[in-house]
From TrEMBL:
Keywords: Aminotransferase, Pyridoxal phosphate, Transferase. GO terms for cellular component: cytosol. It is an enzyme of class 2 (transferase). GO terms for biological process: aspartate biosynthetic process. This is Aspartate aminotransferase.
Amino acid sequence: ACVFSDVQSAPPIEVFLLNRLCAESKDPNKVNLGVGAYRTDEGKPWVLPVVVAAELQMANDKTLNHEYLPVAGLPDFRTAALRVLFGSEHKVITENKVEGFQGLGGTGALRLAAEFLKKILNYDIVYVSSPTWGNHKGIFKAAGFSQIKEYRYWDADTRGLNCAGMCEDLMAAPPKSVVILHAVAHNPTGVDATKEEWAQILHVCRERELFVLFDIAYQGFATGNLDEDAWAPRYFADQDMDLFVAQSFSKNFGLYNERIGNLAVVSKDASKLPEIRSQMEITIRVMWSNPPNHGARIVATVLNNKAYYEDWKGQIRTMSDRIMKMRHELTDNLKKLGTPGNWDHIVKQIGMFSYTGLSAKQVEYMLSKNVFMLGSGRISIAGLTPKNVAYVAKCMDEAVRA
Ligand code: LMR
């Protein structure tokens, strides 16, 4: 018998299944609102001009080569990533209380965090928001966490944050729990805590001695301003919390397939960083040995060059402005159609996504019209264009009335 004869199919990975179904569809009206990836007004992927400039410069730089990087990653990248996250004047930087470790995208940074928390610090319980990004639970399960729990987050009635429920659930967390907090532009809901609410959340994390792991995959996409979007992790670091922050540059650099991320480790005891680094390196060594260069070099080249850095900030604004414009256009179209219900949340939600509130049955209708979106009702606003937004609104209108 074949040794593989008992292998069963795993469930599909929803976002990538949607990509395939959309690519295969022959419908000229098809729209991909599944994966969180930026698109232009023409519905095309966008290679940021500043990325092209950096790549050209790299291609002509005869001092570069394809030797292995250090296990912890490209040094210029790691320090630049931390400056984007915290701002160069933040005390964790000036007091040398933070170090970065290059990860394979945000996922790799999260996986590294999970491995370290489980194997080195013996954590075994993790709390994720309900709902959360489709990969959080799997990453922690794969690292051996035996308890993956949810805290309340989305309030279906207000289509906003249930901060009281969230704090209550976290207050009931057992000692030695990890909590994953979306730093900005919550995926999938597009709903973030206010500054006052963050203060309450911090209070609970302190009180229960929860280990906070921020996931920041959309810095720049909420307000278009990198500093404003990193407010929450900076605030927690201000308050002398030991922290992990998993950064992704997939979205804000459009470097999805280069797998470039960074795990920032903030230790209030700076003298522990060498030991932490050595354990991180051993953890990395058995997972990917050492990280890929290309994406790290692009990000480092841009962040370490004043002119490029300014260009990049402008290009982030181009992306976040277009997304905001599409939120308004979708809402205006629904209003024009007189679609039953209130759709103001589409404009109020931030980042790349809207949690539309469409039911599973209504999503099924959307799929039947070749408008591809997650079963949860999440749409990627970046997939909307001036050409397809009226069609999407019309399908939503029909779905709601059906
Ligand atoms: C998404 O949420 O659509 C993206 O982060 C892609 C992914 O890996 O799920």
